[in-house]
Recover the amino acids of this structure.
């Protein structure tokens, strides 16, 4: 059984007990425990079930690399799935539950998958769920969805808050082990601004556990002195519980600080995302021990040797009473010695090396521990817990030499430097044959804007595993980083580390080397995604030679741990199967973040109301107070309709249309883009921007214009007013204002930079109110101040003046076919003018109307709307807008493109009106079907609906659409199948449904 | 998250301040041009693993367009310069030649 022991436990406070629950059961731990160590102390070794086969799984590791011990943490609005028990600090009241099982952890129906494991190899889903095609939606997908997924999705909105933090530093040191501390000291003493981040709550990393001395004193003393010296340096910032999550271009790095995870009652944000710009980065991220691939290496109780040592030394807990150690290197002897000192029985050290190890082996032997060289684990026995192992020869096929009963197994396959951060932004790796590991290639670092490296790996992360080498390497790395950041460090000898020398390891990628198929089918590489040695070998047999393809086919390394334990073992297995060298097979890509970070931290403060700014017109509050239903248009909010008490939205829209046609309506048109274009070459410039001629427009006049991209497609439209000789005001669509202004600037700055033109986006400087309807002139004349008669202000003219004492510019333009004025005033006077018009207009039945009414009014007149009739593939010619395309101009944006063969194809769909035969309203976006089917078996089509409304003016549905040869087919009937199962029949008509001669706007 | 210096306002601008604008030094073909020339102008772009000339706009800054000579493989920036030119500045070309002998990009080498 696993239990708390009386000795060791340097990180826990035995005088403080902490209570927590796991699957509803209450347990007691100590302050300083992790959830993992506390569960182990309570003999809860089985913590979850695996993803694919639902096999019982327990703790394998003690840190961020843990693949198995993922739990759902917290409850309700603070529930979060897939939290690693090993990095979860225990606090009073913590509530955790295990994952991937039903109905319970102990008894799980899904474990039946394990019995069928031989029928569920790599690529099973790809191979099985192919045919028949129709089964995908109804049978396969629901089945896979039900069984897939890791953990459960929270059901409530996250109650916590998060924040972003921007930091600038000379040297960023990632990792607060002895290498990181020494690096920070070196850079800090040189005078550089240093930020040191450590992912755990403790400084010193694993060196205090591994033993040895620094300058003759225990490692812990060095750690304490280093931290206090760093804390005293004003140029150094230290952050623990802060993980270096990723390194990006040009010295950008992300830190992930967990502020209150260890004490949720504390005030303030839960996580903080550090957005860092560093001149130089030192990655002192340590190394991770590799598991050994032997049959049953996933049974709860089988752990990494270093993790077992961590649990004993740091937390005073042991995973078992009778332990077997399997290794290919000397480091695991430290675990055996530690366990022995803690009173745990070490039954065997199975050293795969025929010659065994160095001095540490002698120490172990002197302690009376039995050491068998050239031996391996053939198979681990036990289901929910290790009950024993069969021992075999490493060079054999797994034939048992003896069976030994035990309750825990420590394994060590050697160490892999944590090269993730080095690799995130392009740092390359080199294969170190002597240590059987990939380590950073200092000749090929990530490079910055100056073409020089800006990341330096230090200590174990750089492949320097021994304590003396770690300290020296960190000093050299940090001196170089400080120098590159512009700080010269005094040459001070690094502190002298001393630890027991080690004999070389022997790579072991499969244990035993010739393991037979049944054993390989139980030898796990990737615990979290349930990938075994046999799966990778199958992939190789099926022709997967690229490690990236094998990864995706087998899902090796694709789980939330991103293959921290499985990567090297997996690609060594692949290399072996392909009979290639490991460096030739290469690694998969390391991508940030190093461990998963919360979505909350990524969002930071940008959620809820501050997620996105909302643009409000000067009359926004008035609309709000008068029943506006809002429609988002870009970042703006526009009233869709103004509902009156007892009215449906549809009723309100119908009322607004009728009232505007019969009496008078008013519209807040402030959101329309207003771009001032000014200068001696402004007319010439606008002639390039618009398809029609703008330079010939007379001051005081307006002209409707179309804008196309250089590809010929229609991108915007609007009314252009000429203000004076060298000034034009261009109205754009609401959504287009910023885009069109940028479009103008792009051409001015990058193509016609010698033309004398300025542009200014004045959209927010003016409020604009449209007064529309037969009574529009009467209302404004009642307000008084300007002569707005037909003779004084004709259609498509504008005048400056005053209305009701407010200075205004009145444009007589119409997007509705009615007598219509658009009145621009400085934004600060918008509400005042709006109020005056509403007051005076009341006698004439004036009503505000919203965007839906605007749409119906324009559709009744056959006016196009950018975004409805256009979708980025439509040219003006498709819409019958030839009249707005100048034939006189030599050039304008889009002219050449519109001469291309596809653009002049007579089979392009053209704009027409559509009238349903029964008066109903066509479904938006519906397609008109044609005879026959296409090669995919879908009905051929000959047109589609672009705008469709119920017209209260005409009492029936009206629509516009693009139809093959449409203008030549007036009166023909088309069929539009709807998604509601009905088929609509509509007649092709002229798109102008109302007042074809334009008499109403011309009064 | 690149950092590029805006040659107008002198700011070392974070990529979040900038808007990318594709390949620099395109020659516009308008009415009267042949189909092939126009097609290439619209659609054919360099895509080098190496030095590239790009257009950027300091969109959340001074609003100006500029060009950058940047290596897509190492992220080295050889220089940024105003967009009002049809070819890269000589000193930028010299830097690239020195760093990458035998280098060429379109008609520049």
């Amino acid at each position: 059984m696993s239990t708390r022991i009386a000795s060791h436990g340097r990180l826990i406070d035995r005088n403080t007990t902490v209570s927590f629950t796991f699957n509803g059961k209450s347990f007691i731990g100590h302050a300083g425990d992790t959830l993992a160590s506390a569960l182990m102390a309570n003999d809860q070794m089985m913590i979850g079930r695996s993803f694919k086969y639902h096999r019982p799984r327990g703790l394998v590791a003690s840190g961020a690399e843990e693949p198995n011990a993922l739990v759902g943490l917290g409850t309700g609005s603070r529930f979060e799935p897939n939290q690693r028990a090993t990095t979860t600090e225990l606090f009073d009241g913590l509530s955790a539950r295990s994952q991937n099982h039903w109905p319970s952890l102990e008894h799980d129906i899904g474990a039946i998958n394990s019995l069928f494991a031989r029928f569920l190899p790599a690529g099973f889903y790809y191979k099985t769920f192919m045919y028949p095609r129709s089964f995908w939606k109804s049978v396969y997908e629901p089945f896979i969805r039900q069984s897939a997924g890791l953990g459960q999705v929270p059901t409530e909105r996250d109650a916590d808050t998060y924040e972003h933090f921007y930091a600038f530093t000379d040297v960023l040191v990632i990792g607060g082990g002895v290498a990181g501390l020494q690096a920070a000291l070196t850079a800090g003493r040189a005078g550089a601004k240093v930020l040191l981040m450590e992912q755990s709550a403790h400084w010193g990393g694993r060196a205090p556990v591994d033993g040895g001395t620094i300058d003759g004193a225990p490692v812990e003393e060095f750690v304490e002195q280093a931290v206090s010296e760093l804390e005293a340096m004003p140029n150094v910032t230290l952050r623990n519980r802060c993980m270096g999550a990723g390194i990006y271009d040009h010295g950008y790095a992300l830190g992930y600080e967990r502020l209150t995870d260890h004490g949720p009652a504390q005030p303030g944000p839960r996580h903080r995302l550090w957005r860092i710009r560093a001149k130089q980065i030192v990655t002192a991220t340590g190394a991770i021990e590799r598991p050994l691939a032997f049959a049953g290496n996933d049974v709860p109780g089988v752990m990494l040797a270093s993790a077992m040592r961590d649990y004993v030394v740091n937390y005073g807990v042991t995973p078992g009473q009778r332990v077997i150690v399997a290794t290919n290197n000397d480091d695991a002897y430290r675990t055996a010695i530690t366990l022995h000192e803690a009173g745990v029985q070490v039954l065997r050290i199975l050293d795969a090396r025929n010659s065994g190890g160095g001095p540490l082996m002698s120490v172990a032997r002197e302690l009376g521990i039995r050491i068998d060289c050239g031996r391996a684990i053939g198979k681990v026995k036990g289901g929910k817990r290790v009950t024993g192992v069969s021992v075999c020869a490493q060079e054999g096929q797994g034939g048992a030499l003896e069976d030994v009963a035990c309750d825990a197994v420590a394994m060590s396959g050697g160490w892999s430097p944590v090269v993730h951060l080095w690799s995130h932004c392009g740092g390359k790796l080199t294969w170190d044959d002597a240590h059987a590991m990939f380590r950073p290639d200092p000749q090929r670092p990530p490079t910055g804007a100056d073409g020089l490296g800006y990341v330096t790996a230090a200590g174990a992360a750089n492949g320097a595993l021994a304590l003396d080498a770690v300290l020296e390497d960190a000093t050299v790395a940090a001196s170089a980083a400080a120098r590159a950041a512009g700080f010269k460090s005094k040459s001070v000898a690094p502190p002298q580390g001393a630890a027991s020398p080690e004999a070389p390891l022997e790579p072991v990628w499969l244990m035993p080397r010739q393991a037979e198929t049944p054993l390989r089918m139980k030898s796990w590489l990737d615990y979290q995604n349930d990938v075994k040695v046999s799966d990778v070998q199958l992939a190789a047999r099926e022709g997967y030679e690229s490690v990236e393809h094998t990864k995706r086919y087998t899902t090796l390394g694709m789980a939330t741990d991103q293959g921290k334990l499985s990567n090297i073992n997996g690609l060594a297995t692949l290399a072996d199967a392909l009979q290639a060298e490991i460096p030739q097979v290469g690694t998969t890509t390391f991508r940030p973040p190093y461990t998963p970070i919360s979505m909350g931290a990524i969002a930071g403060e940008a959620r809820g109301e501050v997620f996105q700014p909302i643009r409000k017109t000067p009359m926004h509050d008035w609309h709000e107070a008068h029943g506006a239903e809002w429609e988002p248009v870009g970042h703006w909010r526009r009233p869709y309709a103004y509902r009156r008490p007892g009215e449906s939205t549809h009723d309100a829209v119908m009322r607004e249309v009728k009232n505007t046609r019969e009496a008078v309506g008013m519209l807040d048109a402030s959101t329309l883009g207003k771009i001032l274009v000014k200068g001696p070459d402004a007319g010439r410039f606008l002639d390039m921007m618009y398809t029609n001629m703008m330079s010939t427009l007379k001051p005081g006049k307006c002209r409707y214009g179309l804008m196309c991209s250089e590809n010929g497609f229609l991108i915007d439209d609007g009314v252009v007013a000429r203000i004076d000789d060298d000034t034009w005001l261009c109205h754009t669509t609401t959504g287009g204002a910023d885009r069109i202004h940028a479009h103008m600037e792009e051409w001015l700055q990058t193509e016609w930079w010698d033309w004398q033109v300025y542009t200014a986006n004045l959209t927010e400087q003016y409020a604009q109110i449209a007064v529309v309807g037969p009574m529009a002139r009467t209302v404004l004349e009642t307000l008084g101040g300007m002569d707005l008669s037909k003779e004084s202000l004709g259609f498509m003219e504008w005048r400056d003046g005053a209305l009701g004492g407010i200075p205004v510019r009145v444009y007589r333009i119409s997007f509705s076919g009615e007598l219509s004025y658009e009145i621009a005033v400085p934004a600060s006077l918008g509400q005042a003018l709006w109020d005056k018009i509403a007051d005076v207009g009341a006698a004439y039945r004036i009503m505000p109307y919203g965007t839906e009414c605007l749409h119906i009014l324009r559709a009744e007149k056959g006016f196009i709307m950018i975004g409805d009739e256009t979708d980025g593939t439509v040219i003006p010619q498709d819409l019958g807008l030839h009249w707005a395309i100048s034939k006189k101009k030599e050039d304008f944006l889009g002219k050449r493109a519109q001469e291309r063969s596809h653009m002049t194809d007579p089979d392009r769909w053209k704009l027409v009106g559509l009238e349903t035969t029964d008066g109903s309203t066509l479904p938006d976006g519906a397609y008109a079907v044609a005879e026959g089917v296409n090669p995919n078996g879908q009905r051929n089509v000959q047109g589609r609906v672009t705008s469709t409304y119920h017209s209260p003016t005409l009492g029936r549905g009206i629509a516009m659409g693009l139809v093959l040869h449409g203008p030549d087919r007036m009166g023909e009937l088309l069929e539009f199948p709807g998604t509601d199962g009905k088929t609509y029949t509509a007649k092709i008509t002229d798109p102008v449904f109302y007042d074809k001669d334009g008499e109403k706007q011309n009064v | 998250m690149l950092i590029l210096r805006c040659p107008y306002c002198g700011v070392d601008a974070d990529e979040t301040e900038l808007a990318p604008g594709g390949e620099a030094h395109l020659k516009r073909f308008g009415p009267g041009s042949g189909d092939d020339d126009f097609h290439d102008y619209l659609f054919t772009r360099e895509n080098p693993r190496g030095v590239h000339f790009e257009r950027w706009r300091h969109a959340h800054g001074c609003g100006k367009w500029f060009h950058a000579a940047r290596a897509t493989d190492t992220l080295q920036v050889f220089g940024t310069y105003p967009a009002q030119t049809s070819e890269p500045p000589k000193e930028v070309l010299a830097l690239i030649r020195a760093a990458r002998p035998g280098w060429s990009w379109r008609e520049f080498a």
Remarks:
- Chain B has a mean pLDDT of 96.
